[in-house]
Design goal:
Helicase, Ruva Protein, domain 3; DNA-binding; Arc Repressor Mutant, subunit A; 3-stranded antiparallel sheet; 3 domains; 5-stranded parallel sheet
Length: 400
DNA sequence: CGAGATTCATGTGAAGTATACCTTTAGGCTTAA
DNA sequence: AAGCCTAAAGGTATACTTCACATGAATCTCGTA
């Protein structure tokens, strides 16, 4: 046994390393140079530049679909700004918060708590009055003369869950600040988002607006090429892989993040198979794997009750259309088997709505006329991974 | 036949409850003078 | 007497429940052509 393993590791080491620097392909990576976003970056820079003179920059609202470089551009510009500020000793702070993260910044309390933590204050997850946390945050903010740029990524998620009051408060905070200046940068994937906003909030948040258009296939190709050179060892990419990868991504509304992930996963697959080069076959395989992993991951991290509801929905799936009541009946049985205390139908209704938001299921409210009003529910998992998801749920819920 | 009333199943909002966690306060014990 | 620890009291956020009302088109009803 040991002998075998030894052998395996030896072989592993001898094999040519496919990746030179895998980090370059990971979504957290900040490249030195951002291609095809010069306009946007320059605009951001222009808007935020007054911060260096300790003037409050205009609030900015940034739109664009996923994977169009919004977050990247902001982070890049922030970094540069901070560098300059540092060498000149300018008191500038930039806080970046992703509002999508559940349990981090999806309510007013949690968002403000997170901000206060950025200033080095320990805030408990519950127990304090929101006002109190707000005051702590405010005091820290106003402690000294400085400019703070607050970047709220995926702000639409926050507003959807917690309302626009928070944003309103934040935009108004400046009139109370004596020393510091606060500038808001909101980032949204949802182009229609601003329309549902209170007009006052909207106008104060979007003193400046910026739109990130999707990349086209050529641009994606260009970017991939650049990253691939850094990420992979020479000659491991077969002809046409980049092109195909770009084509895939362009079809998916120009999402560069996906394209990079695709390339990375394809590389990993090829490496695991012991191939010397990445071929188109791995690319296709990667495409599936990513899709699969995404769902598996989301499902896996859901709370038990959500999983139970989802499991009930999967059990229903065979016949075409079904409704909240049907799901709830099954759900109650599942709970019994899984030794869970069943939630009320009221709550399950909300859970279904949330699962819908996560994109795991499709649910829409319909009226069946004489036969009442309900949600029509359908699974939106790719059928190939349905058994896998089912299995995960069974394990997680201890069903056998 | 068609306009309006009815009806059903559950959506949805508001208010209440349980839980987990926080700070403050008061008491009790220890310690140092 | 001052200091320190502990436990109770009083408070909050969040997830969930309870209650009550809202919804909206298929179906029913009934007056009219």
């Amino acid at each position: 046994m040991g002998q075998d393993l030894n052998n395996f590791f030896e072989k592993f080491l001898k094999k040519q390393n496919m990746f030179k620097d895998k980090k370059v392909l990971q979504s957290a990576h900040l490249p030195n140079e951002i291609l095809h976003r010069d306009d946007q970056i320059n605009q951001i820079a222009q808007i935020l530049a007054p911060a260096l003179r300790l003037e409050r920059p205009s609030n900015v609202f940034i739109y664009g679909k996923t994977g169009t470089g919004k977050t990247l551009s902001i982070k890049h510009t922030s970094q540069q700004l901070l560098d300059v500020a540092k060498t000149r000793n300018i008191p500038l702070k930039i806080v970046y918060v992703n509002c999508k993260l559940k349990k981090i910044a999806d309510t007013e309390y949690r968002l403000i708590a997170e901000l206060a933590r950025f200033f080095g204050k320990a805030i408990p997850p519950t127990g304090l009055p929101t006002d109190e946390v707000y005051n702590i945050f405010f005091r820290e903010l106003d402690r000294e003369k400085k400019v703070v740029i607050l970047v709220l990524d995926e702000i639409d998620q926050l507003v959807k869950k917690a309302g626009d009051q928070i944003i309103y408060n934040l935009t108004r905070i400046n009139s109370d600040l004596k020393q510091a200046e606060l500038c808001l940068v909101g980032i949204s994937n949802d182009l229609a988002f601003a329309n549902n906003l209170d007009p006052r909030v909207k106008s104060s948040l979007s003193e400046e607006e910026l739109v990130f258009p999707p990349y086209n296939a050529l641009q994606i190709q260009d970017i991939l090429q650049g990253r691939a050179i850094q990420a992979f060892s020479d000659g491991v990419l077969e002809q046409g892989v980049i092109q195909k990868c770009a084509a895939y991504a362009a079809r998916e509304h120009g999402d560069i993040r996906r394209a990079l992930e695709l390339l990375r996963v394809a590389g990993e697959l090829a490496e695991r198979k012991g191939l010397s080069a990445i071929t188109l076959a791995e690319l296709d395989e990667a495409q599936e794997k990513i899709e699969k992993d995404r769902f598996v991951d989301v499902v896996f991290t859901q709370p038990k009750q959500f999983q139970a509801v989802l499991y009930s929905i999967i059990m229903m799936e065979k016949d075409s259309a079904f409704f909240t009541g049907d799901v709830y009946d099954i759900y109650k049985k599942i709970c019994q088997k899984a030794n869970l205390r069943p939630l009320t139908q009221r709550r399950v209704s909300d859970v279904i709505a949330e699962l819908d938001m996560l994109g795991i299921i499709n649910a829409r409210v319909i009226s069946k006329g004489r036969y009442g009003r309900t949600r029509e529910i359908g699974l939106s998992l790719p059928t190939e991974i349905e058994p896998k998801i089912k299995q995960i749920l069974e394990e997680s819920l201890l069903l056998t």
